[in-house]
Design goal:
370 residues, Rossmann fold, UDP-galactose 4-epimerase, domain 1, 2 domains, seven-stranded parallel beta sheet, four-stranded mixed beta sheet, 15 strands, binds NADPH dihydro-nicotinamide-adenine-dinucleotide phosphate, binds guanosine-5'-diphosphate-rhamnose, lyase, GDP-mannose 4,6-dehydratase, NADP, NAD(P)-bd_dom, GDP_Man_deHydtase
Length: 370
């Protein structure tokens, strides 16, 4: 039985990857941060009672900022594969917490690589590094491939750039099986609530149920190459199953504006929106509402721009070239943007129907949103 260790197992990708590896018969270990509230919502369905026998899913308290903790866990687990998904992954927040981001996302990767080396596991343990399309940053050329130069535009991207190169360096210096997956944006119903797609699908679901009036966004002209997280974790696994370690771009090859994502999300609940105005005065208006439960009027404003969500330096355009992954890994995504939006909207409408039900029953519901 193969043994895998996943950092960031409580995150979006960690949850899908753990599910995939368990299905493939792996014993799966995960690094979990201590928090004052439970933080295992996304993986609770995978939980196995540690008192049972033949448990194949185990969590360990730890943090990427803690070398001795990582060394101890890796020594205990003796993993065949490590997937380093743990990170402070929010680009905008990285401008507020640059030092922490560098520590967790940059040096955290070094700590894992060194732990493998110190423990003499360089020939046994393969490591996947969660690299990102944010490395491309300021547009040099499109579509972006494995050979496109990097120009990071945030403390997050700069930290990830260190992680990218230290992974390459350990592969070349010590012959380790260490690879980067340069993944473009991937989303799902498990996406963190403050990333733009999930913020939109949550907001639109709530508007359609009469629970919220409007959503506030930043730069709606940014273009992203959005895929489905379920497809992308399959690529991570494939990257570690090759004869030789290499880096791969994982993307759909299709780019879409945030603005279009908004329109598609509203369309899922029978609401047509159009945009008028310019820059920070831009507003999204209801053009047609074929959704009787929403109680919206034509002309009503459902979206406004809030400069608070602008970034000091922005990444305007991402579009990836997944040719190498398709050819060498045989990787093909099963979802397109249409099925992604449908999946996310269906999940968020179902989620907030519970709130609607509670409200009708006289209960209080709260919605923290940023
Ligand atoms: P999430 O933000 O959903 O999950 C991040 C995970 O990292 C969480 O489990 C989080 O724990 C954990 N974490 C954060 N800080 C630390 C730390 N100091 N030590 C240990 N664990 C930590 O991210 P995604 O699942 O979306 O992304 C997974 C990885 O892929 C990240 O590295 C991200 O940067 C990268 N990536 C993501 C892309 C995307 O579009 N989703 C695209 C390209 C790269 P907790 O739950 O306790 O907060
Ligand atoms: P990104 O994702 O920065 O690409 O990083 P995010 O969804 O945060 O932003 C995408 C684009 O939308 C614009 N935007 C907003 N973004 C947020 N979060 N909130 C808003 O209100 C808003 N309005 C407009 C942003 O300016 C941006 O242009 C994600 C993360 O998962 C990273 O960890 C990962 O490495 C990259 O994708 C690939």
């Amino acid at each position: 039985m193969k043994v895998a260790l996943i950092t960031g197992i409580t995150g979006q990708d960690g949850a899908y990857l753990a599910e995939l590896l368990l299905e493939k018969g792996y014993e799966v270990h995960g690094l979990k941060r201590r928090s004052s509230l439970f933080n295992t919502d996304r993986i609770d369905h995978l939980y196995q009672d540690p008192h049972e026998t033949n448990v194949r899913f185990k969590l360990h308290y730890g943090d990427l900022s803690d070398s001795t903790n990582l060394i101890r866990i890796i020594q205990e687990v003796q993993p065949d594969e490590i997937y380093n998904l743990g990170a402070m992954s929010h680009v905008k927040v990285s401008f507020d917490t640059p030092e922490y981001t560098a520590n967790a996302d940059g040096i955290g990767t070094l700590r894992l690589l060194e732990a493998i080396r110190i423990l003499g596991l360089t020939k046994k343990t393969r490591i996947y590094q969660a690299s990102t399309s944010e490395l491309y940053g300021l547009v040099q050329q499109v579509p972006q491939s494995e050979t496109t130069p990097f120009y990071p535009r945030s403390p997050y991207a700069v930290a990830k750039m260190y992680a990218y190169w230290i992974t390459v360096n350990y592969r070349e210096a010590y012959g380790m099986y260490a690879c980067n997956g340069i993944l473009f944006n991937h989303e799902s119903p498990l996406r963190g609530e403050t990333f733009v797609t999930r913020k939109i699908t949550r907001g639109v679901a709530r508007i359609s149920l009469g629970l919220q009036q409007k959503i506030f966004l930043g730069n709606i002209d940014a273009k992203r190459d959005w895929g489905h997280a379920q497809d992308y974790v399959e690529a991570m696994w494939r990257i570690l199953q090759q004869d030789t370690p290499e880096d791969f771009v994982i993307a759909t090859g299709v780019t879409t504006t945030v603005r279009e994502f908004v329109q598609r999300a509203f369309a899922e609940v029978g609401i047509e929106v159009a945009f008028t105005g310019e820059g920070v005065n831009e507003k999204g208006h209801v053009v047609r509402c074929g959704n009787p439960t929403a109680g919206l009027e034509v002309g009503q404003v459902v979206l406004e721009i809030d400069p608070r969500y602008f970034r000091p330096t922005e990444v305007e355009l991402l579009i990836g070239d997944p040719t190498k992954a398709k050819t060498k890994l045989g990787w093909e995504p099963k979802h397109d943007l249409n099925s992604l939006v449908k999946d996310m909207m269906a999940a968020d409408v179902a989620l907030f129907q519970r709130d609607e039900y509670l409200l009708k029953g006289g209960h209080k519901v709260y919605n923290y949103h940023e």
